[in-house]
């Protein structure tokens, strides 16, 4: 992890570059996969499962009995942990249900909205290097609350915890398919896999690029949620043991993950880097984490104002504010997927069980995108009703505007009513 001391503003972009492949580079690999699945359906899925996942499957659909009986294969403590995480995530997302007000914009002109769950959704659960069953909860729970009628789940992993979490969320359409081919299968549909309207879920660069590509063919997506990243802001009083553990928690996701430490105290940076070396040795995924650390940076700044500038430019997926006054700093952050305040809020808690969603925008997309929430699974339909009194109040305004746009049929739709 290289240290950059007091960088100038014009150096920020170079220092904060992500280690991911360029969009064109990944797209070149992914586009042919997508097109082959579109054209050949299940036949292409069988070929790619063998090529990329080394599995020979003739049936991708997971038997319902495997989903119903998965709990029995899990250790009881894990079942209890999943159950509690389910409760917390459910509670946080259910609180996002809002009652829409009917707004009277002019006397007799009433406008309102209703939320409707997207009928058919697809959720991708990463499973290439680790079976991320927590992601089933993060996507399955809001889909359940939104009352999406059909939820299709694809994952390259057949870990029973994925199936147990799916069972808890009422998901029965589960397919053992991974990577960009899974995204294409859900976008276009195949003989085995139903076509959906919107695809959700994190994944590696191939998965993320595939989502962006199928979006061009007309399937909606949540957002680009690629290789995990975290930025930590520390000050003189931060605990290097805590910070090192937080940085490593995201570094272990994959070699293309990135972690960033910003601090106004060189001693804290140095102590954190030493601590990373110590903690790394005990991690089973230390080789992966080491590679991610090669892409990672520590930045020494003059003060917290500059730190905030850098963090807003970086737009981290996760931002931990391990500082004396985290609320004050959080108020100044405008670009981040999810913010963790104080010394006792490790990002891992948001990854699994505090309640917030862990499917978040990476690679700087937090400048414009939000993470997954209940809203991601619903459409808001606007409704309006205008009374006879209302058309008298609003009609002349619409007539005037329609005439100015030279759209006389528009004007007439009002005029015939005003004259009736
Ligand atoms: N942003 C978020 O919200 C978030 C949340 C959780 C995880 N993640 C990220 O998800 C990712 C999970 O990655 P993963 O690889 O473990 O699992 P994954 O399920 O995303 O990808 C595995 C699939 O990639 C495909 N693949 C592998 N090599 C390929 C190649 N050379 N060409 C084409 N396809 C190939 C395979 O089909 C395989 O099934 C990590 O990067 C992690 O950081 C992000
Ligand atoms: N940190 C990931 C989001 O970037 C989510 C996750 C799942 N399991 C562990 N972590
Ligand atoms: Zn994580």
Write the layout of secondary structure elements.
Blueprint: E1 2-5, H1 12-15, H2 23-40, H3 42-53, H4 64-69, H5 76-94, E2 103-106, E3 109-117, E4 120-124, H6 134-145, E5 150-154, H7 160-168, E6 173-175, H8 179-188, E7 198-200, H9 205-216, E8 220-221, E9 229-234, H10 240-251, E10 258-263, H11 266-280, H12 286-294, E11 297-300, H13 304-314, E12 316-322, H14 326-332, E13 336-341, H15 347-352, E14 378-386, H16 388-404, H17 408-418
Parallel strand pairs: 1-11, 4-5, 4-7, 5-6, 7-8, 9-10, 9-12, 10-11, 12-13
Antiparallel strand pairs: 2-3, 3-14
Helix pairs in contact: 2-3, 2-8, 2-9, 3-8, 5-6, 5-7, 6-7, 8-9, 10-11, 16-17
Bound molecules: nicotinamide-adenine-dinucleotide, L-histidinol and zinc ion (ZN).
Residues 228, 250, 253, 351 line the site of zinc ion (ZN).
Structural class: alpha/beta
Q: Which percent band covers the strand fraction?
A: 15-25%
Helix % is 40-55%
The description of the largest β-sheet is: 6 strands, parallel
Give the names of the bound compounds.
nicotinamide-adenine-dinucleotide, L-histidinol, zinc ion
Please count the helical segments. 17
Quote the average pLDDT. 96
List segments where confidence is low: pLDDT < 50 over at least 5 consecutive residues: none
Number of strands: 14
Radius of gyration: 25 Å
- Characterize the overall form: globular
Keywords:
420 residues; alpha/beta; six-stranded parallel β-sheet; 45% helix; binds nicotinamide-adenine-dinucleotide; binds L-histidinol; binds zinc ion; amino-acid biosynthesis; Ald_DH/histidinol_DH; metal-binding; histidinol dehydrogenase activity; Histidinol dehydrogenase
């Amino acid at each position: 992890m290289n240290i950059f001391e007091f960088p100038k503003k014009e150096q920020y972009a170079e220092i904060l570059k992500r280690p991911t492949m360029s969009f064109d580079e990944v797209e070149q690999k992914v586009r042919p996969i997508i097109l082959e699945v579109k054209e050949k359906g299940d036949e292409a899925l069988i070929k790619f499962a063998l090529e990329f996942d080394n599995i020979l499957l003739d049936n991708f659909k997971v038997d319902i009995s495997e989903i119903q009986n998965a709990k029995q294969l899990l250790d009881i403590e894990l079942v209890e942990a999943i159950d509690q995480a389910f409760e917390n995530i459910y509670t946080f997302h259910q609180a996002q249900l809002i009652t829409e007000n009917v707004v009277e914009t002019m006397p007799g002109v009433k406008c309102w909205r209703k939320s409707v769950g997207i009928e058919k959704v697809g959720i991708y659960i990463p499973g290439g290097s680790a079976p991320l069953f927590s992601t089933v909860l993060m996507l399955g729970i809001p889909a359940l609350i939104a009352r999406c009628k059909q939820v299709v789940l694809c994952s390259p992993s057949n870990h029973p915890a994925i199936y147990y979490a799916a069972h808890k969320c009422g998901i029965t359409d589960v397919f053992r398919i991974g990577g960009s081919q899974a995204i294409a299968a859900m976008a276009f549909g195949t003989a085995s896999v139903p076509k959906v309207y919107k695809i959700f879920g994190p994944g590696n660069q191939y998965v993320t690029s595939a989502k962006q590509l199928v979006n061009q063919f007309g399937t909606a997506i949540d957002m680009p949620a690629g290789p995990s990243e975290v930025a930590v802001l520390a000050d003189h009083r931060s605990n290097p043991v805590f910070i090192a553990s937080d940085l490593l928690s995201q570094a272990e996701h994959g070699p293309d993950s990135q972690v960033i430490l910003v601090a106004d105290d060189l001693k804290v940076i140095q102590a954190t880097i030493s601590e990373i070396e110590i903690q790394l040795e005990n991690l089973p995924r230390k080789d992966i984490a080491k590679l991610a650390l090669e892409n990672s940076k520590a930045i020494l700044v003059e003060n917290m104002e500059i730190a905030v500038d850098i963090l807003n430019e970086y737009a981290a997926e996760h931002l931990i504010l391990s500082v004396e006054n985290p609320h004050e700093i959080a108020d100044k952050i405008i670009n981040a997927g999810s913010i963790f305040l104080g010394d006792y809020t490790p990002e891992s808690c948001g990854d699994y069980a505090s309640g917030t969603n862990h499917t978040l925008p990476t690679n700087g997309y937090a400048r414009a995108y939000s993470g997954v929430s209940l809203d991601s699974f619903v459409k808001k339909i606007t409704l309006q009703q205008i009374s006879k009194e209302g058309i008298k109040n609003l009609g002349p305004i619409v007539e005037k505007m329609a005439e100015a746009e030279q759209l006389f049929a528009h004007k007439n739709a009002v005029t015939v009513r005003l004259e009736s």
